[in-house]
Every structure is written in C-alpha cells, then in structure tokens.
Amino acid sequence: MEEAEEQDDTLGDKRMKRKYEYNYQRTIKLSLMVLFILLLFSLISANTIYTDAAETMKEEQNSTLSFGYNFILFIDWVFVLSPIPIIIFLYLKFGREQEFPELNTLPIYVRDISEIGNISPAEAAVLLDPDVAETGLNKVISAEIMELIRLGYLEVIEKEKSNGIKSDIIEFKPVEGKDINRLTPIQRKLYEFIKYHLINNTFSFEEYGKKIKTDNQARNEFKKFVLGLKHNINKLLNEKYIDKTGLKLGGIFTALYGMIFGTYFISSLKPEDTSHLIFIGLITFLISAYFILHKKSVLSRWTKEGRIAHEKLKRYKKFIEEMTTIEKKDIKDVILWEKLLVYAAALGVANNVINSMKIHYPDLIKNRITSYLLIIPISFEILESVD
C-alpha cells in the first residue's frame, strides 16, 4: 500500500515536471516570437526613418543648390547688364559739361581771334568742333593752306590756257629759305606734302587728284597722309582742353568686361544653358565699345580753359555770320581781312566773309592775294571728291 502511494507520488511529480517544461518551452517560443516581431518592427521603423532622413537631406540639398544657382544667375545678369549703368554713371560723373563763373561775363561777340589766344586755324576748328577731323577735314586743310600763303610759305601760281585765258586751276609753289620750324606740326606736314609732290616745280590739288584716281600707290600714300593729318588734329585736343577721365575709365572697363565675358561665359559655360546671357552680353559689350570708339564726346568734357575757348569761338563765329548786319565795321585793312578769312574758312563760314567784303569793301576783292584765298577751299573740294 505504501509502495502504491509512492508510485502515485512519483508519477505525479513526473507529470508536473513535464507540464512545467512544456510551459517553459512555450514561454521561450512566445518570447522569441515577440522579440522577432519587435526586431522586425524596429528594422522597418529604422528603414522608414532612414528613408525619411535621406529624403529630407536631399530636399535640403536641392534647396541649397537651387539657391546657389539662382544667386549665380543673378550675378551673371548683373554682370552682362553692367555696361549700361556704367556708361550712364561715367556720363553723369565725367561727361556733363561744368559751369564756370567766367562764362557769364563773356561778350555777345568776339571780334578778333587774338581775344581767344594765339591759336592756329586747325586749333580753332577743333576747339569749335572736336569731331572736325572726321566731319570737316577739308575746312582745316583749306584754312591751313591759306595761312601758309598769308605767312609767305607758299606762292600762288596762276596758269594760263593755250588761248591766253586764265586757268581755273590754282597751283602752289613752296617759297625757298623760309624757316619751317616756326610752323605748327600740321602746317609743316602740309608744306612738306606739297613740296615733295611738285610737278614742274608747282603743285595743284586738281592734278594730284587725277593722279590718285589711276595710281594705287599714290592713292595709298595720300590716305596715309590724311590719317596722319587727322591724328595731328586730334592731338590738339590734349589735356589742356579736354578732360578724358570718363573715356579712359570707360575704355578700361570695356576691355576688362570683354576679357571676362570671353573667358567665362563663352569658354566655361554651356552655350545651350546660357545662350540668352551670351546674346545680351554681346549687345551690351557692343554698346559700350560704340561709346568708347565712336562717341568719345559723351564720356569726356571740356576743361575750364577748353570750355572758355570753345564758347569764345562760338561767339567769334557768330560775329562772322552776322557781319553783314552789323552796322559798325572796324576791319578796313586787307591783311586783317585775309586773316579773318583764314579763320572763317576753318570755322566753316568763309562765304559770310566773302559776302560781307563784297557788300562793304568791294575794292578788297580785287586784291590778288584775297582773290586766290577765296578759290582755295574750292580747289581742295575737288581732291576731297576722290575716293
């Protein structure tokens, strides 16, 4: 009986033990499943967080890149458009004429060129019109040749045709023994040009004009002479008369702009991405270059001395233009009339002097020297018509 009870106890213990082991294993399995589920969830959550973080970083990066691109594009546009405000600034700062108190005290008329100073006909012409080398070269040459005759460096030779009638062609002969060092550079250049192109010891623009029509070498030589003459005329407008600060600064800016534009926009960037910038840049560069090369007066202005001389010359020209209406006539000497005629030719109003002489002093027209001086501007116009 006791043995039977012990066996029942042993059997019960075994059952309890198996039941415990079963529950333990089940608990372990459940715990592992829960842990696996938690791990899987953690991995999914981590991946989601990483993805969200990556997208956020990408958006921030794109935003940064977009800001940088827009900023660079803004700088590019400022650069390609910069020539226009720069030219406007240089004009406002260095191109507008200054006002001086002395201008308010100038008389209505200036009656004698000596009131302006000891200036040559070419200097008078360029001080009145700074572009005269391009727009009125014939006036300068005519006036300076007339001055060479008046000063005795050239002699006028009158030719006759075979039938004894006077020829319309005016010829010049250099006078020997004269000191050419007393001449201005432009007068000396003209004198030497005539001296080195003599035909039978005389020179005429009509005959030389015929020559350069058929002789290419002579035509090229003449073109070289004209370019040198223009250079000498433009040199008269030195720092004494013209302030070229704006023009110099504009030239430096245009050169730098052209170099930067050429190397950066055309060489470095993709044309398909910046074609509009390149086009606008070329347009603004050409505008800037146009003002520097062809509209120099916009970025330069008269100095005080130049402005006063310019205004006096305007009044001197006005006096010549209105000579026929002025009641009082103070010019009675033929030498003074000849000098007046020389400077009137330089200023483009020689006909006014001629008309006034015909009205008030017709006897002076009969003077041989004066008569020749009246023909010289016409002589040079014949040569001017040669291409």
Describe the structure.
- The protein is mainly alpha-helical and 387 residues long.
- The chain has two domains: 1-66; 112-244 and 300-384.
- 70% of the residues lie in helices and 5% in strands.
- The chain contains 15 helices and four strands.
- The chain has a two-stranded antiparallel sheet with strand order 1-2. Strands 3-4 form a two-stranded antiparallel ribbon.
- α3 crosses α12 (334-347), α9 (245-266) runs antiparallel to α10 and α12 packs antiparallel against α13.
- It is elongated.
Q: Return Rg in Å.
A: 47 Å
**Distance between the amino and carboxyl termini:** 154 Å
Number of domains: 2
Basic shape: elongated
The share of residues in helices is 55-70%
Structural class: mainly alpha
**What is the average per-residue confidence, as pLDDT, rounded to a whole number?**
77
Number of strands: 4
Low-confidence stretches: 1-8, 38-51
Order of helices and strands: HHHHHEEHHHEHHEHHHHH
Helix count equals 15
Looking across the biggest beta sheet, what order are the strands in? Answer: 1-2
Beta content? 5-15%
Report the sheet with the most strands, covering strand number, pairing sense and barrel closure.
2 strands, antiparallel
Write the layout of secondary structure elements.
Layout: H1 2-81, H2 83-95, H3 121-128, H4 132-135, H5 137-150, E1 154-160, E2 166-174, H6 185-195, H7 205-214, H8 216-235, E3 242-243, H9 245-266, H10 271-293, E4 301-302, H11 304-321, H12 334-347, H13 350-360, H14 362-365, H15 368-384
Antiparallel strand pairs: 1-2, 3-4
